[in-house]
Amino acid sequence: MKSICIIFNKVPYGSQSSRELLDIALMAAAFDMPIKALFIEQGVLQLINKQQPEVLDIKNHSATFKALELYGIEEIYVDANALNNYQLTHDDLMPIAELIDNNAISEHIQQSDFVLML
Amino acid sequence: MAIFSLLVTATPYSAQGQFSALQFVRVAINNGHSIKRVFFYADGVLVASRLNHPPSDEINLTKAWAKLAIEQDIDLVVCVTAALKRGITNHAEAERNALTGENLDPAFEISGLGQLTEAMLESDRLITFG
Q1: Cβ neighbours of residue B58 under 8 Å, at least 6 residues apart?
Q2: Domain extent for A51
Q3: A27: nearest CB among B7, B114, B130
Q4: How many domains does chain A have?
Q5: Residue A116: its chain B contacts at CB < 8 A?
Q6: ipTM (interface predicted TM)
Q7: In what helix (H) or strand (E) does residue A7 lie, and over which residues does it extend?
Q8: Which domains does chain B have, with CATH numbers?
Q9: From B8, B79, B82, B84, active-site residue
Q10: Which residue in chain A has the smallest CA separation from B130?
Q11: Distances (CA, A) of B115 to A54, B42, B62
């Protein structure tokens, strides 16, 4: 089976790209494709706890990240450098992702048949 | 020779993505490659409206896709969720959702995200035009 690497690199609610990417990930998971999710650049903000997009009248998709494991997406990684740039730590995020460095990110991308970023 | 699929999310006219995607398909075919499917998602679905009507001295992206699809027998698939959200509908979806009118160009087909996954499984490469 071909594998996919899904890269989240956009802010959570200023752009809908990540929600659209999330839908692609869930559908591909339903087809049993092996999926890795990477959160890089501004995308690390997707995993911050207790987001309240409801005040902006935007549908909340953050909770879906917590459900990724249920869909069989267990390899979830966060760019440690990007997190550091925002002065955030692992404790600020939903406890679903592992911190990795740039080299590891490159390796995950290279190992995947398809790489998707919206 | 490779089998390609395209994921087109670029909004028509305001951005270059749709123009580039069309050129990519033409060049790929001219070089002996094949196109499994072009999947339109996010703002990319807006190109599927047959009511898009740019000035006559500009390329009509909807007709350009339709011409390519007919000449080369290419599958143009529009994501149903993204399309309905943006006012793109065919007769069946209009009836199902109690909408007045329909505007999907007949060269395009409305379907789900499963068609994108299937396209990936049956292609060597997926190229995104955003």
Answers
A1: none
A2: 4-116
A3: B114
A4: 1
A5: 7, 126, 128
A6: 0.93
A7: strand A4-8
A8: 3-129 (3.40.1260.10)
A9: B79
A10: A118
A11: 31, 15, 20
